[in-house]
């Protein structure tokens, strides 16, 4: 993923195609198996300029994906949307392009999640600055999240048993698989293991 310089005015858009080509050639030297899937732009909506840029990337990739990242934070959130294009119009007459939205799923590594969680904490800081958490604070935060999750699961189970909520077989199977993954150990062994890990974390 790399950015490409461009200039926009009310009537036209100019993209540095030579820069895009050179960057892609350099990228292929590092990751030869990766190909162009599409392009991204900041903003909360698709513009007339999007059609022109998308036309260029249609020559670089089959049915490219257009990703928009709303850095203006409309509705107080950074919305990320994806689209593919399809031609529309009357054959032999003026043709246009229609962008069809796609379902976006967020996938991340655990190490990436740690960084994002830390950045999100700056939302509650007046000067938008926050320090790194100590190991003990991280253990405390993780324990609090586990406790909150267990409280939600327990409340759901109690609501199902009392008839307040209809039972969901998918959720039931998921919880059963989760329980079966818990090692079968005695309370004494578990306490010893927990205390040992806590001591290691505090060192």
Automatic annotation (TrEMBL):
Matching Gene3D superfamilies: Cytidine Deaminase, domain 2
Organism: Anas platyrhynchos
Claim: Cytoplasm is one of the keywords in the record: yes
One of the record's GO cellular component terms: eukaryotic translation initiation factor 3 complex, eIF3m
Domain of life, source organism: Eukaryota
GO molecular function: metallopeptidase activity; translation initiation factor activity; translation initiation factor binding
Domain MPN: 1-89
Protein's name in the database: Eukaryotic translation initiation factor 3 subunit F
Keywords: Cytoplasm, Initiation factor, Protein biosynthesis
